[in-house]
Structure formats: C-alpha cells, structure tokens
Amino acid sequence: MNRLIASAIWRSPAGRLNARAPSRVASSAVAPAVLANVNARGISSSTIPTASASAQPQRSQAKSQAPPPRDTRLAGRRRFYKVVGIGQASPPWETMGKKKEEDGRDDSSAADSPISAGVDGTQSATGVTTNVASAESLRAILDPTRSGDSDGRATEWFNVTLDERALRTPLGHPLTVPSSALAMAIATEWDAQDPTISPAQMPLTTMVCTAIDQISVQPQFYKDNILRYLKNDTTCYLTCPQEDRLLYRKQMRAWEVLHEWAQEHIGKGKHAPARAVGNDEGLILSRARKSKPGAGLPHPDVLMEEAETWVNTLDAWRLIAMQSVTVEAKSFLVGMAVVSGCELDHRVDDSIPSPPYINAGAEAVEASRVEEEFNIDQWGLV
User: Fold this and answer.
1) Per the CB 3.0–4.6 Å rule, which of 65, 118, 177, 360 could disulfide with 128?
2) 78-106 b/e with 16+ CB inside 10 Å = b?
C-alpha cells in the first residue's frame, strides 16, 4: 500500500514538479494530485491526511522536541567533572566585555557556579541583587592596590578550572581571585565534592562569589550591616559578678585585651567601648531614647566615627571576611581584630597597635563563645 501511494505521487505531474520545489508548494499542489491518483485506484481519501491535517502533528511534534529550560542549579547533582585546577587569569573587570559578547551562546570554556544569586536566581533573598556591576565598579572594590593592601607590585590573579573550564560566579563574572593560596583553597573545596555537590560545604567559594557579585554592586549595604553589630557587640555585655563570678572572670580575661586594643585602634587612645554589666544595666543602656534614637550601647561618638572610617577602607575581600566573622561572632570588635590580625601592616609599623588575634582564629572563636563554652562545661552539651 505504501509503495502504491509513493508511486502515485511520483507519476503525477504535480508530484514530479514538487519533488524539486519547496515544501510550501508541495503542501498546496501535491495533495490534490495524490488524492486524484489514489482515488482512481480505489483507495479511500479518508486514509490520506491532507496538508493542513498533517501540519498539525508536525508542529506539535516539533514543540514536544524543544529542549527544556536549562537548569543551572548544581546543588545536589552528582559530580560532573574529573580534574580541578588553578591557573593565572585576568582580573574580572578586564573580561567583562568578553562575557557580554558570549551571552546568548554556549561558552564551552566556562563552568556554572552552584551558588544561586538569591533563590533560583531571583532577588527573593534579603540584600541579594541580580544587577551586574560595571567594570569600573568591579575594579574600584576588588583591586587590592586601590585600598592600599599592596606593596606596590602588580597583583597576580588566579582562577579555578573544572576540566580546564574556568569557573564563573552566579551572575556570570569570572571567578578570579588575587591570591594563588585562595585559588588553591577554593579548588580544594571543589575537589572534595564527591559524589554530589554541596554548596554549603564550600564557604570560600560562597564568600568569593558574594564579594564579586554582591559587594561590588552594593558595598554600602554590607558596610552598614557590619556597623550595626558594634552598637550591640557581644563582648560589651558582661554578666553580673555578684551572680556568676566565675563567668565574669572568663569574660574579662577574654575581652579585656580586645577592648584595650579597640581603644587604641579606633578610640584614639582615649575612648573605650561602652560596657554593660548585668542584665538590668544592659537593658537600661541599650534602650532607645530621644538623645539616642537607635537602640544599642552608648559608645563614644569618636569611636563610632573611627569604626566607620576604618570599614570604608576595606576592599571587597576584607569586607566579606569582616562580614562573615562579625555575623558569626555577633561582634564587630572580634571581626575587626581578626581582619586586622591577617594584615601585614602591624608587622612593619610599630606605631600601629597589634591586634589580639594575629593569625589566631581559634582564639577569636573562643572570645565569641565564652558564655556558651562556660555553660557546656557546667551543664554539658544539650
């Protein structure tokens, strides 16, 4: 039967003509000729689809074969790469133009990031933006030489590669960092993802993506958030010595040196952070009043201004470190001491007071968990 239909199509004048013609012509001219030939041989026309009827299944079939929307979320997926490496790269602001040219087509030299810009790439997360910073904004906040955190030498930049494909941030910027040690640490995080990818176990990747995508666009949001913690700094609330003398001593031993350093660093040697001893004093001092609209401890104005000035000197890399430590420790002073302790300035300039935590993260953690660790020692971990 199929051979008969095919023969009828070819033998008809319209069929031979339209075998060489575009399909649009064939749909209007071939169908009547085919029906005329096959009906002459006793075949029912109801078994032969017309052009308009046959076009409908073709369109629906093409629609069903369309590729599904690309899902760029990698969290929970199985590891899809074999080799993780690092290499020298250009700063992210120098490759922005190349990225824009590559938009709209597959870039086989880049790998997607598992860190979502918000939830599913939206702005649903607090403080998250999907706006892309300009090249000048990226350079102003990411270049260590502009913040004075450099010895004058040109900064070398490094990227992380998955099977020789450079990793990108959620907003499409190249994930490049001004430190080979940091790039190696990020590569180690990716190499440890097996058998599935878990972004929660890649804190350095998350912090670098935040620095490049978020802080470069809205640095003031992060600066204001960090300064909020100073008014209610954990290390400025001490327990009443008459209620718990042992805990009070532990707090003083852990925080006294921190407050003395803060007085020299941002208090001009005269103004120490305010303290509240006991619950009652803490409530009275931290409540809002007409002379102090915002709630929080009444720190000296000089200390608050110097703290803000210091925060404004931070580039994106130190700002994201400050943000992470401050939020986890619930203490601006601990965060400032950790970030300052990682810098080299205090080693070459004796006039700068040395911070209490010079490359000593464990001591900073202990300072932020005095009361928690004390309760665990007394009552056990519940």
Assistant:
1) 118
2) eeebeebebeebebbbebbeebeeeeeee
Tally Cβ neighbours within 10 Å of residue 335.
Answer: 26
Which two three-digit tokens encode residue 321?
A: 């470190």
CB 257 within 8 A of CB 243: no
- Successive 10-residue mean pLDDT values, the chain, 382 residues: 40 41 38 36 40 50 57 76 94 70 45 48 60 82 70 80 93 91 96 92 94 91 94 93 92 94 92 89 72 77 95 94 94 94 61 77 90 90 77
The 3-state DSSP class for residue 2 equals helix
Q: What is the DSSP track for 90-151?
A: --GGGSHHHHHHHTTS--TTEE--SS-SSSTTSS-STT---PPPPHHHHHHHH-GGGGT-S-
Confirm if 331 and 234 have CB atoms less than 8 A apart.
Answer: yes
- The 10 Å Cβ neighbour count of residue 220 is 9
* CA nearest neighbour of 273 among 259, 256, 284: 259
- DSSP code of 59? H
For the CA atoms of 357, 361, 363, 368, the dihedral, rounded to the nearest 10 degrees, stands at: 100
Residue in 251, 233, 87, 115 with CA at minimum distance from that of residue 171: 115
Q: How many CB atoms lie within 10 A of CB 182?
A: 17
Looking at this protein, which amino acid is placed at residue 217?
V
